[in-house]
Amino acid sequence: MSQNAGRHCRLQAAHDGPYGRAMAGGDLRKPHYDRLRVMLRATTGNPTQRTPTQNQTVRTVFVIGPDKRIKLTLAYPMTTGRNFDEVLRVLDSLQLTASHRVATPANWRAGEDVIIAGSVTDDEAMTIWPQGWAAPRPYIRIVPHPDALGA
Fold first, then answer.
1. Which of 14, 28, 73, 106 is the most buried (most CB within 10 A)?
2. In whole angstroms, what is the distance from residue 143 CA to residue 131 CA?
3. What would the pLDDT profile of 10-45 be if each residue is shown by its tens digit?
4. What are the structural domains of the chain?
């Protein structure tokens, strides 16, 4: 278990009472934690009588890759609907960049040109894309979508 994971477990184990203990070994009843306790105080009153405005949720979309790592998180406030076109666009981009050594620019759509990943040297790029690339800047090397090349 990593050091951070172990620390997280200790913090979770230290959480108890109405305010919990915000730090491992910390006690929110001590004077130097008063300000933190006030800032983190839960909404007072009966939780069954709160309105939806007081219980505002954040809707979150997680994309977890086959390697069990979080690849994307999108958080939307309660008043904003999720944009499924954006979720699908990001999934297309993640799948493409996982299988090819490319990056996708802002507002990219499936089938559009892509950028050669910065980790690819010019010599390597020449073997992968022998037809060359457009380079409006030395660090931006634009090539057609790999599926358009039959790659």
1. 28
2. 9
3. 444 444 444 444 444 455 456 656 666 666 665 555
4. 1-45 (no CATH), 52-80 (no CATH), 84-149 (3.30.1020.10)
Q: Which residue has the higher pLDDT, 83 or 102?
A: 102
Q: Is it the case that residue 98 has pLDDT exceeding 80?
A: yes
C-alpha angle 147-72-101 in degrees, rounded to nearest 5: 35
Could you please report the per-residue DSSP string of the chain? Answer: --HHHHHHHHHHHH--TTT--SSTT--TTSGGGHHHHHHHPPPPS-GGG--TTTT--EEEEEEE-TTS-EEEEEEEETTS---HHHHHHHHHHHHHHHHSSEE--TT--TTS-EEE-TTS-HHHHHHH-TT--EEEETTEEEE--GGGGT-
Q: In whole angstroms, what is the distance from residue 89 CA to residue 110 CA?
A: 7
For the segment 138-147, what is each residue's pLDDT rounded down to a tens digit?
889 999 998 8
Cα distance between residue 135 and residue 117, in whole Å = 13
